[in-house]
Amino acid sequence: MSARNKLNAFHPSSLIPHPLTCRVFCAVPLTEEVRESAARHMESLRASLPYVRASWERPEKMHITLKFLGEIEESRVEALSRAAERAAHEAESFTLSISGAGAFPARGNPRVLWLGIKDETGGLYGLQRALETETEREGFRREQRPFHPHLTIARLRQPEGAREVATLHQDTGFETLSCPVSELLVIRSELGPKGSRYTEISKHKLSAR
Known about the structure:
Blueprint (H helix, E strand, L loop, with lengths): L2 H7 L11 E9 L2 H17 L5 E3 L6 E11 L3 H14 L3 E11 L7 E7 L4 H15 L13 E6 L5 H11 L4 E5 L1 E10 L2 E11 L4
Antiparallel strand pairs: 1-3, 1-8, 2-6, 4-5, 4-7, 5-6, 8-9
Helix pairs in contact: 3-4
């Protein structure tokens, strides 16, 4: 190693520790009835078209994402939970309908299979807006993209069979189920060789009606 490289290797800046980060998002949970029905739907598709290469969502991990923050410093998690608490306090509990089945994109080879969400009362959109406002107050960036909630059940990895499974998914449909929502979650996502693992950081009750 040259003298210059030796100096660079022990430059004081190289000794400054980088802040620890974690991958986080805010979401509302689903009922067990919705999870079980989604699991049966996915299993039926897989059994009918076993050759289709897809990453199927595990029912226990299914949720409705309201805000994905990505990697943030661990020291800011407490601020995020404070924002979630205020947003939850502003919102009343509400009920969604899980209904309908579709695929993205609509043209070409589908890459995502999803279940629809109907927010007749506007409760979900109200909670999402409150969360954006409160997280911005804590210094987090406001999401600029429109909020279009849905439940992803599969990501299709290859074109072979993609159109067939998407057509079967849509033709089969998904029976309408009610999904009461009474809490907002802050969740940590850790990526691994077997997929992501979720850990609940904090839970925030919505105001009762």
